[in-house]
Design a protein that fits this description.
This protein is an alpha+beta fold and 649 residues long. 37% of the residues lie in helices and 23% in strands. An 8-stranded mixed sheet has the order 11-15-16-23-20-19-17-18, with helices on both faces. The structure holds zinc ion (2 copies).
C-alpha cells in the first residue's frame, strides 16, 4: 500500500480534531527526541481515531516505554509552546535537513534523512514550511492547533512496524500510535467504548451465538450464515420486502454473473476491474457451441493419470493452447446489480405513465476486496445487498428522493439508531468533463433538489464539495451503534450517466424520448455489514422479532404429562410461525435456564406442574429475568403482538 502525501486541499479540510491529533504527533516526536536524541522521523499524520509518527531508532520502543514518553509529552503540553509556522526556501530546508535539524531538537551529526527525501518530493511550485514548538522543528505543511496546551488529553496506544512510504523495499520503521482528544472525558469515553466494543465484537458473538462462520475451503471473505444467522437475514429481507412493497417497489431477480460486454457498457470495466473477481473464460458460443473453456474432458484425463505436477503442467499447457486458438467469451461475477436492472428497464417500452419505476432485489454481489482488508462481516467478498434502482422523470426526483430518505429514517427508528449523519457529496463545476460527467444543468438541478429535501426534512447532514461520484451527487449514510462506534451503512446515488450509456428512454407526454434519472439506494446496506452492525448494536440481545430463537420451553422435571403439555404449547407457537424450541434434556431447571440465557434466547417459558394445572406458563425474558406466571393464551398473544409490531425489546 503506498502512502501518499496529503494534498494542500486535503490539509485545508482537516477537522479540528485532526489538527489536534496531528499536533500531538509533533509532541510525541519531541518527547522521543528528549529520550533518544538520535531518532530519525518520517511521517506523522492524523489517522482515524488518533495519530502516529514513524520513527527510525536502534532502541526497540515497546509499551513499557510509554510511561516515560508520555511523561515527556505532558511536560511539552504543560509548557504550552506555540506552534510557529516558518516558510523557508527549498535550499534553506535542504540545508537544515543536512544539519540534522529537521524533526530534531537541535543540529545533529546525522542528516534528517527521511525529511531530506520528503523535500525532494515536494512539487517545485509548493511552498515549504516548518513548524516549531519549543526546541522542536519539523518540516510540515500543517495545519496545527495554536499551542501545545490545546492538546487536552492523549494516550499512546500501540507500536507496530511499517516500511517507509509503505514500500517493503524501504527501511522498516517503528510506528508509534496514540490518540488525543480535546478533553479528558472524551478520551475516557473513547476507551470505555473500545472496551464495550470488545465485548460486543461481532466476530466473537457471531461464533458464540452460532450466527455465521468462515471456512478456508470456501474462501476468505465469504461468510456462511448458520441457521441462527440466516434467520436474521431473512427477517431483514422480510422487513425490506414489506416496506418496499408498501412504497410501490417491484421485485426482480437477476443472475449472479454477466458477460463482459455488460460491464464495459456500465463502465465497471475497466474502472472497477480491480475490485471484481477475475473473469471466467468460455469458448465463444459462436465458435464452438456450449463448450466451456475449462474443458471437463481435460480434468477427466487428469484423473486417469497418476497425479503429478508434470501431468498438471501438461493439462494446463493444453488449456493455454486452446485458449490461444479459440475466440473466448468472458463472464464476470456481478459486483453491482445496477447493470442488470438497467437492462430490465430497457426490456420493455416505457412511457412517462410507467414512472417512477422502482426495481428492487436483495442482489448478491461479489467484490474482490484485498485480503488484508477483509474484516469479519464488515469487509467481505460476497454481499447480499438491499438494492433498488428507481427510474423517474426530473419532475419526480424530489418526491422520490424524499421517500427514500423517509425510509431511512423509519429504519433508524425501528432499530433505535439515534445518531446518524448523511454526507451529501456534490460536484465541482471546474472539474466537469474530467472528474464529473459533463452535464452542468443536471448536476445543478439534482443537487439543488437533494439539498432542498435534506433541509426540509430536518435530516442531520453535512455537505462535502468535490466528492460526488462520477455520474451524480451521492449521499453516504453513517450510523453510530448504541456504544458510539461509527459504521458506514449505505450509499444513495443519483445517476444520470448510466441511464445514458445504457440508452434508457421513456416516452414523455409530448411523445418525445427522454432520459430517466436513476437513484441507486440500499438503506439496509448489505446483510453482511448490517448484521455485523446489529450484533454490536444489540450486543447479541436481539429484539423478539429478530431473535434467532424466540421462545424456549423449559420443563421443571420430565414428567410425561408435563412434557406433553410443553409439546402442545410448542406446536401452538410454531403453528403461528414463532421460532420456538423445547429443552427436553434431563437437566435441572437451573441448568436449562443457564443454557438458554447463554444463547441469548429471547423468551423462556418455564413450566412446572402448577403452571400446567392452571393452563399457564411462567415467563422469563433474557436480560429482564422472571416476569411471573401468565395464562398460556395471554403469553402467546403478547409474543405474537411484539413480533408483528417489531417492537424494540
Ligand atoms: Zn505538522
Ligand atoms: Zn446501483
Amino acid at each position: 500500500m503506498s502512502e501518499e502525501r496529503k494534498t494542500l486541499e486535503q490539509r485545508a479540510q482537516m477537522t479540528d480534531l485532526e489538527r489536534l491529533r496531528h499536533s500531538a504527533s509533533h509532541v510525541l516526536a519531541t518527547a522521543i527526541l528528549k529520550i533518544w536524541p538520535e531518532a530519525q522521523f518520517a511521517a506523522g499524520p492524523p489517522v482515524e481515531n488518533g495519530f502516529y509518527y514513524d520513527v527510525d531508532l536502534p532502541h526497540r520502543i515497546s509499551p513499557d516505554d510509554f510511561d516515560q514518553i508520555e511523561a515527556e509529552m505532558k511536560k511539552e503540553i504543560k509548557a504550552n509552546h506555540p506552534f510557529e509556522k516558518v516558510e523557508v526556501s527549498r535550499d534553506e530546508a535542504l540545508e537544515l535537513g543536512k544539519q540534522g535539524r529537521l524533526a530534531a531538537l537541535g543540529e545533529r551529526h546525522e542528516p534528517s534523512k527521511f525529511k531530506l527525501d520528503i523535500i525532494e518530493n515536494i512539487p517545485s511550485d509548493e511552498k515549504i514550511s516548518l513548524y516549531r514548538n519549543g526546541e522542536f522543528i519539523d518540516l510540515c505543511a500543517g495545519p496545527h492547533v495554536m499551542r501545545t496546551g490545546n492538546i487536552g488529553a492523549f494516550k499512546l496506544t500501540n507500536v507496530a512496524s511499517a516500511y517507509y512510504k509503505g514500500d517493503e523495499k524501504n527501511p522498516q520503521l517503528q510506528r508509534v500510535y496514540g490518540t488525543a482528544f480535546k478533553t479528558r472525558k472524551e478520551l475516557d469515553d473513547y476507551f470505555a467504548m473500545l472496551e464495550e466494543a470488545k465485548k460486543r465484537d461481532h466476530r466473537k458473538l457471531g461464533r458464540e451465538l452460532e450466527l455465521f462462520v468462515f471456512d478456508d475451503d470456501v474462501g476468505p471473505g465469504l461468510p456462511m450464515f448458520l441457521p441462527r444467522g440466516a434467520v436474521i437475514a431473512e427477517e431483514l429481507e422480510k422487513l425490506a420486502k414489506e416496506t418496499e412493497f408498501a412504497a410501490g417497489y417491484q421485485r426482480v431477480l437477476t443472475p449472479h454473473i454477466a458477460r463482459e460486454s455488460l460491464y464495459l457498457k456500465s463502465g465497471h470495466l475497466p474502472y472497477y476491474a480491480e475490485s471484481m473477481f477475475p473473469p471466467m473464460e468460455l469458448v465463444a458460443e459462436s465458435a464452438e457451441p456450449s463448450r466451456p473453456l475449462h474443458r471437463p474432458e481435460l480434468f477427466r484425463e487428469l484423473l486417469e493419470k497418476p497425479l503429478s505436477s508434470a501431468a498438471l503442467d501438461e493439462i494446463l499447457s493444453k488449456a493455454d493452447k486452446i485458449r490461444s486458438e479459440l475466440p473466448t467469451d468472458r463472464y464476470y461475477l456481478k459486483a453491482m446489480n445496477c447493470p442488470h436492472h438497467h437492462k430490465l428497464f430497457a426490456s420493455l417500452p416505457r412511457s412517462y405513465r410507467d414512472l417512477p419505476l422502482r426495481l428492487a432485489e436483495y442482489g448478491t454481489c461479489y467484490r474482490y476486496e484485498k485480503s488484508g482488508e477483509l474484516f469479519g462481516l464488515m469487509r467481505v467478498r460476497s454481499l447480499h445487498m438491499n438494492d433498488a434502482h428507481l427510474y423517474m422523470t426530473p419532475e419526480q426526483f424530489e418526491a422520490e428522493f424524499n421517500a427514500v430518505n423517509e425510509m431511512y429514517l423509519n429504519y433508524f427508528k425501528l432499530f433505535g439508531i439515534d445518531r446518524y449523519l448523511m454526507r451529501f457529496s456534490t460536484h465541482d463545476p471546474a472539474k466537469l468533463g474530467q472528474k464529473f460527467v459533463d452535464e452542468p444543468a443536471l448536476w445543478q438541478q439534482t443537487e439543488e433538489m437533494t439539498r432542498n429535501v435534506l433541509k426540509n426534512s430536518g435530516i442531520n447532514y453535512v455537505e462535502v464539495p468535490n466528492e460526488a461520484a462520477f455520474y451524480g451527487p451521492k449521499i453516504d449514510v453513517q450510523a453510530w451503534s448504541v456504544i458510539g462506534r461509527e459504521f458506514s451503512i449505505a450509499t444513495n446515488q443519483v445517476d444520470f450517466a448510466q441511464p445514458r450509456s445504457f440508452g434508457l428512454r421513456y416516452k414523455d407526454r409530448d411523445n418525445t424520448d427522454k432520459l430517466p434519472i436513476c437513484i441507486h439506494r440500499a438503506p439496509l446496506g448489505t446483510h453482511e455489514r448490517f448484521i455485523g452492525f446489529l450484533i454490536e448494536h444489540y450486543a447479541g440481545n436481539f429484539p423478539l422479532w429478530l431473535s434467532p430463537e424466540q421462545v424456549r420451553i423449559l420443563t421443571i422435571g420430565d414428567d410425561s404429562k408435563l412434557l406433553e403439555y410443553a409439546r402442545s404449547i410448542l406446536s401452538e407457537l410454531r403453528a403461528h410461525q414463532v421460532r420456538a424450541e423445547i429443552d427436553e434434556s434431563a437437566d435441572k431447571i437451573n441448568g436449562k435456564i443457564q443454557r438458554a440465557e447463554q444463547m441469548k434466547v429471547h423468551t423462556m417459558y418455564v413450566i412446572g406442574k402448577r403452571d400446567m394445572e392452571a393452563d399457564a406458563v411462567s415467563v422469563r425474558v433474557h436480560g429482564k429475568g422472571n416476569l411471573g406466571a401468565k395464562p398460556r393464551g395471554e403469553a402467546g398473544a403478547e409474543i405474537l403482538q411484539s413480533i408483528k409490531e417489531r417492537r424494540a425489546n
